[in-house]
Amino acid sequence: QVEVVESGGGSVQAGESLTLACVVSGYNFNFYCMAWFRQAPGKKREGVALIEKDGTTTYLDSVQGRFTISKDDARKTLYLQMNSLKPDDTAMYYCAARRLACPGGTPSKVTEFEFSYWGQGTQVTVSS
Fold it and tell me: Over pLDDT 70: what percentage of the chain?
C-alpha cells in the first residue's frame, strides 16, 4: 500500500522561505508524475508544480521563479522549495502522484482527480 507523508510546513513572515518534503513508502517511487497542490480556505485545490519522471518541471504562474519542485529518487522524496513567500501562498499543501505522465497543460489546468495518491497535507501560513 502506498503511503504519502508531507512535512515542512509552518508559519513564516512574508519574504521568508520554507521547504516542504514528501516521503513515499510502499512503492518503488517509479511514478511518472508527481505534484504539489494547495488549497486555501474556501477555494478549490489548485496545482502548484509538477515534475515528470525525467525531471521536467512546470509551475503555476504565480509561483514561477519563487518555488522549485525537485525529487530524490533514491530517498523516495519529493521537495518544494518556496522562496519569497507571500500571504497569498497561505494554504494547505498536498503532495500527489500518479503512474501516468503528467497531464498536459499548466498546473492551473490540472485537477486533483487526475492523481491517485495523496498525502494528508501540511499547512503553510504566511503573514504580512
Answer: 98
